[in-house]
TrEMBL record:
Chief site of localization: membrane
Organism: Neisseria chenwenguii
One GO MF term: undecaprenyl-diphosphatase activity
Protein's name according to its UniProt entry: Undecaprenyl-diphosphatase
Lineage, top ranks: Bacteria, Pseudomonadati, Pseudomonadota, Betaproteobacteria, Neisseriales
EC number: 3.6.1.27
Coiled-coil region list: none
Length: 274
């Protein structure tokens, strides 16, 4: 297999793992860098594999929590409420995604749309963080969340169907606006990623399983491992970061990165597939 193709798979796997849990849009980065790297492998199959690698990083990091949930479901009120909250938060984006995913992918999955939403999302993060400084959070632990809190986060996640918005960014900012403490919103976003991404992966596998070929095994393996390792690093680092910092740096990154993409497009420096 071409070493250059494997290297591109490695780069995209790392990008997926690092960006999936940061509020900077993993899908947006994959669209931009996939276009920039001219990566034309079995795109959907590869994307499925690296997304699964990223979500397994969360499961591994919180393995004790998930084991506790599985073994105590139905017997522990706190566990039951936690699972109910995940189910409630899962539904809104899942329903809207099933209804409108084709239209969204047709019209919005391009670097220019991504760049625009990166900037818009960055400005929203700046506003939310400024607002957060003047407001005392009401929910200080994930286990204190109510179904209504989860529903608000789930509705916020609908915005993430637009590439460049960011699933984690939407859920974290939505939670913070509603009254969740910054770390609580971040952790719940991690937990919500598990059922959301497993469901999306399962759906895509059923829909695209005929595209899987033996030739893709090498690319899938490289991208999967890279996404898992980078995802694990991102989760650990982000939890430490939000314990003493806010999301303002990510907002500025989004604005600068999105602005750079638009500048290269307007000046004709890069021929984006817009």
């Amino acid at each position: 297999m071409d070493i250059l193709i494997l290297f591109k798979a490695l780069i995209l796997g790392i990008i997926e793992g690092l960006t999936e849990f940061l509020p900077i849009s993993s899908t947006g980065h994959l669209i931009v860098f996939g276009d920039l790297l001219n990566f034309h492998s079995n795109g959907k199959v590869f994307e499925i594999a690296i997304q699964l690698g990223a979500v397994l990083a969360v499961i591994f990091e919180y393995r004790q929590r998930f084991t506790h949930v599985i073994t105590n479901l139905g017997r522990d009120k706190t566990v039951n409420r936690f699972v109910l909250n995940l189910a409630v938060a899962f539904v809104p984006a899942a329903v809207v995604g099933l209804l409108f995913s084709k239209q969204i992918k047709h019209y919005l999955f391009n670097p220019i749309s991504v760049a625009t939403m990166l900037i818009v999302g960055g400005l929203i993060i700046l506003w939310v963080e400024k607002r957060q400084d003047a407001k005392t959070p009401e929910v200080l632990k994930v286990d204190d969340m109510r179904p209504i809190d989860a529903l608000v986060v789930g509705c916020a996640q609908i915005c993430a169907l637009v590439p460049g918005t960011s699933r984690s960014g939407s859920t974290i900012m939505g939670g913070m606006i509603w009254g969740l403490e910054r770390k609580v919103a971040t952790e719940f976003s991690f937990f919500l990623a598990v059922p959301m991404m497993i469901a999306a992966t399962g759906y895509d596998v059923l829909k695209h399983y005929k595209l899987f070929t033996a030739q893709d095994i090498g690319l899938i393996a490289v991208g999967f491992v890279a996404a898992f390792a980078a995802g694990l690093l991102a989760v650990k680092a982000l939890l430490k970061f939000v314990a003493c910092k806010n999301y303002v740096p990510f907002a500025y990154y989004r604005i600068v990165f999105g602005g750079f993409i638009l500048l290269t497009w307007v000046m004709g420096w890069v021929n984006w597939n817009a």
